[in-house]
Design the sequence.
């Protein structure tokens, strides 16, 4: 015999209506989308200078070498997209 449930038990309905995500969304609402961030308008040189500052350095030569190479690769790739400044964040 097949049973058909018409109403969920009260406990289930309470859990569904009082989900913890709802509380988090009230406490930490999502920020509004922006057209661009100021950093997305920086030149290649400015980006390199910003991200290679001493506060981001590890002090390990091999790590710094790989970071610089990776940063150059990512910036070069972004330049190949041919996007307007600031638009790659959309």
Sequence:
């Amino acid at each position: 015999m097949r049973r058909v449930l018409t109403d969920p038990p009260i406990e289930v309905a309470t859990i569904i209506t009082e989900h913890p995500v709802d509380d988090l969304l009230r406490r930490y609402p999502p920020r509004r989308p922006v057209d661009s961030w100021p950093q997305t308008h920086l030149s290649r040189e400015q980006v390199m200078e910003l991200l290679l500052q001493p506060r981001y350095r590890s002090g390990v030569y091999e790590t710094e070498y790989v970071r610089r190479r990776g940063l150059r690769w990512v910036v070069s790739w972004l330049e190949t997209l041919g996007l307007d400044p600031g638009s790659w964040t959309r």
Notes: The chain has a mean pLDDT of 80.
